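Hey, can you fold this one?
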Amino acid sequence: MSQEKEKERSGGKIEEEKHRDERIEQTGQLTLDQNEQKQNIHLLSIIGEIEGHDNLSGSSKTTKYEHILPQLAAIEDSSEIQGVLVLLNTMGGDVEAGLAIAEMIASLSKPSVSLVLGGSHSIGVPIAVSTDYSFIVPTGTMVIHPVRMNGMVIGVPQTFEYFKLIQDRITGFVCSHCGISKSRLEELMLETGVLTKDVGTILVGEEAVKNGIIDQVGGVDKALQRLHEMIESKD
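Sure. Predicted structure:
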């Protein structure tokens, strides 16, 4: 009888691990619940290119905002999830989709921490600063540049006003969620001596912290430690 129970228990663990692996593979998300503090932390990955209303190439690594937004709503509604860890390694992507994700994360009542790994470029910057606290690894990069548009652009005053409106939305969001000033952020955006064929600035690790965009240099250990502390202090 005990052997049968042991087999059932073993089979249950295998099935649970299989489900966790499939969830990671399909969505890049996972619930971290094996810690000493017995806290349930939702792991959210923002990787590759942030996909908007158009589907990107099947060979591209993408983050689909139509998957992320419902998940964030479910996290807010959950009585079990206590905090959110956001891992970023993104080249940027669709501006509207990226801002929507950033606004959703910023509006969560649960404690949240972000960790910039390989990079968090372009519209990835607002997402990185949307959490309650942010980290970047020493070799992590952030590319700050003005809004770019693909496709046909009509050369009339209304088009330029629209560009400016989008840029102001991004600048306003970033400056309201981190320690950088509007003037300094715009200075970084319009820098001409760093990117050889474009305007903008690349910030690496500590540089992002010194400029007030990211809170601290650190890896996943510090990010999780900080999140556990935030959850405990809220309780």
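The chain has eight helices and nine strands. Let me know if you want another pass with a different chain boundary.
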